[in-house]
Amino acid sequence: MARHVEAWMDGVALSSVGPFLLQQIQEEPPETEQTSYARPGMDGQWAGPTRRTALRIVLMVAIRELYDLPRRAMLAEALAV
Q: Hey, how many other C-beta atoms are within 10 angstroms of the C-beta on 21?
C-alpha cells in the first residue's frame, strides 16, 4: 500500500518543485570528527564528543511528467544537486 511521504531538500518540499514519486532513500555513513580537550594539570587529552561534519542522503525519484519532455528535463535539472 502506497503512502504519501513529503521529502524536503534545502528547506523546499519536493512536491512544490514538481510531480515526483519518491522511490528510495539511501543514507550514507556520516563524516565525523572526534574532538578532544586538554586535561588540566595532566599530560594528554580527554576524548570529547564525536561531531557529525557532513551527511549525504541519496533520494531516488521517478518523475511523473510523461509527455512534456522539456518540462521533464527541467524537473530533472531541479533535482540534480
A: 11
